[in-house]
UniProtKB/TrEMBL annotation:
Protein name: N(4)-(Beta-N-acetylglucosaminyl)-L-asparaginase
GO biological process: proteolysis
Gene3D superfamilies noted in UniProt: (Glycosyl)asparaginase
Active site: T150
One Gene Ontology cellular component: cytoplasm
Amino acid sequence: MYGIIATWRMALEGITEAEHMLKDGATASDAIEMAIRAVEDFEYYKSVGYGGLPNEDMEVELDAAWMDGDDLSIGAVASIKDFANPVSIARLLSREPVNNMLVGAGAEKYAHKMGFERKNMLTERAKIHYHNRKKEVQELELKPYSGHDTVGMVDLDSQGSMVAATSTSGLFMKRAGRVGDSPISGSGFYVDSAIGGATATGLGEDLMKGCLSYEIVRLMGEGLHPQEACEKAVQDFDKVLKARRGKAGDLSLVAMNNKGEWGCATNIEGFSFAVATETQEPTVFLVKFDENGRQYFEKASDEWMDNYMKTRTAPLVRK
């Protein structure tokens, strides 16, 4: 059995190619790296990689992480600028005996030393988004923060190995140096090939309060199906945050166990995810809620899929 699951519709093209690779016997590591790089390289996805939305100083700072479920190796970078494909840098860091998480200038120095591609990650579209948001904040008193759609993936290869990885540009107009949950083990991601893996997207400041990716893997280890584990972890922590703090930020997680079974849970409307397995063709699902607040999944329609891409590639005008 093999499979791959990812947060958001933007992962579809990557996991489609990854599914072909896994079917042909590729390792979980090679398949997931290729799938995330596909998202990082597509400039119209404004929350990851090239085209990612900038911080308050109009600089694109990227976070990424990597975890090997076989030996629990972890690599991560945070607040790295001017390098393409931070997920690949994180993968290489996971092979180091120490110094597995690097930030800012240190991460950039390492990437340069190891021969990774330097690239100006700030696109013209991102500049327009930035200037438009600054104007909206001033004129409409809107909050600057929006856009925290991390791409996170978990995959399983036919040899039983599992990997989890993430990549994001973080909150739009965040403070320089801000780091969310995405590169933090147990919060943005966690995987153990003996059990399964999980990965998160949403408001990092709240996701980090609950270490939800680790909690889902722990629950799967106790025998819960990935769907049950996701729902329990998200629903329980959503209640905790609302009881303690009066509100809860966006919490959305996907998971897969070492049998290729998968699950997803969220506390927001409009969340999408993509999944492919040996028995499930690459598919985008939308999370819906019934009148009793119970979530269910609906396959994205052709109309929804067409509108998704048209919206993201539509020309922008500076206000």
